[in-house]
Automatic annotation (TrEMBL):
<keyword id="KW-0966">Cell projection</keyword>
<dbReference type="GO" id="GO:0036038">
    <property type="term" value="C:MKS complex"/>
</dbReference>
<protein>
    <recommendedName>
        <fullName>B9 domain-containing protein 1</fullName>
    </recommendedName>
</protein>
<dbReference type="GO" id="GO:0060271">
    <property type="term" value="P:cilium assembly"/>
</dbReference>
<keyword id="KW-0963">Cytoplasm</keyword>
<comment type="similarity">
    <text>Belongs to the B9D family.</text>
</comment>
<dbReference type="InterPro" id="IPR010796">
    <property type="entry name" value="C2_B9-type_dom"/>
</dbReference>
<feature type="region of interest" description="Disordered">
    <location>
        <begin position="1"/>
        <end position="23"/>
    </location>
</feature>
<keyword id="KW-0970">Cilium biogenesis/degradation</keyword>
<dbReference type="Pfam" id="PF07162">
    <property type="entry name" value="B9-C2"/>
</dbReference>
<keyword id="KW-0206">Cytoskeleton</keyword>
């Protein structure tokens, strides 16, 4: 009978063919001990690790509005420029607002309301290269071509609290009247080759610009672990809420 069962189910293993479980030997336990965690090891919490890995700068708020006399529809592009020791741990490094038109119900006839949200978190061990926000405002000419209307840049506030910024905008000028006329005919107004030039010092002294309009921002700033790296987190003799015109 056993022979017939084996012919019907040849794949069924015999009891004697089941592999035996190897018990740990002295050599196996020695190998495990070499890779085990020492009993005197110090367990570091996540907050303690973050405290010593760098201070944190968190910025949230909105790109509220802009005033550009003579222009009907505009949108804004923003991005951040920072030093080599800085990194972004959360949020978007750049963004585009929607196209806004002048509102009759606004406080100013030339005001264009965006109310575009901004949220980003930075981390660093060095205050050098403190992050800057770079703004570029674009519009459309009579032929529906995209043209630059203004540039602006400013350092993010270093004091925790609510801040309202009013940034002046400018745009580069042509090197001559002939170049200005040719640019107007071709629909190519003067622009910076490097879009981040407003946040840099190199090359700005040789550039001629014309002031035009301004942008309003509302930013909420929070900092962490600044004291661990030798920086003060509390303003001296100032309020947490500030209004700055740049």
């Amino acid at each position: 009978d056993s022979d017939s069962d084996e012919n019907e189910n040849p794949a069924r293993p015999r009891v004697s063919e089941v592999p035996e479980v190897a018990l740990p030997t002295k050599s196996n336990t020695d190998t495990f001990d070499r890779f085990s965690i020492p009993t005197n090891a110090k367990v570091v919490s996540r907050e303690e690790h973050e405290r010593h890995s760098g201070f944190v700068l968190t910025v949230s708020g909105q790109l509220q509005s802009g005033e550009f006399p003579g222009w009907e529809s505009l949108y804004c592009h923003y991005n951040f420029v920072m030093g080599p020791d800085w990194s972004i741990t959360d949020g978007l490094e750049e963004g585009y607002t929607q196209v806004a038109t002048r509102s009759v119900s606004a406080s100013s006839e030339d005001e264009l309301v965006w109310n575009f949200p901004i949220s980003i978190t930075f981390k660093s061990t060095n205050a050098f290269g403190w992050p800057q926000i770079v703004l570029r405002v674009y519009g459309f000419d009579h032929f529906n071509r995209q043209v630059i209307r203004g540039y602006s840049a400013a350092h993010l506030p270093s004091i925790a609290g609510q801040h309202r910024l009013k940034l002046r905008c400018f745009r580069p000028m042509a090197s001559s009247k002939m170049m200005e006329f040719q640019g107007w005919m071709a629909g190519q107004r003067p622009e910076f080759v490097d879009d981040d030039l407003p946040a840099k010092a190199d090359g700005r002294k040789a550039c001629r610009v014309r002031s035009r309009g301004h942008i309003a921002l509302q930013l909420n700033v929070a900092t962490r672990f600044m004291k661990e790296f030798g920086y003060s987190e509390e303003p001296r003799g100032t309020h947490a809420q500030s209004v700055t015109h740049l």
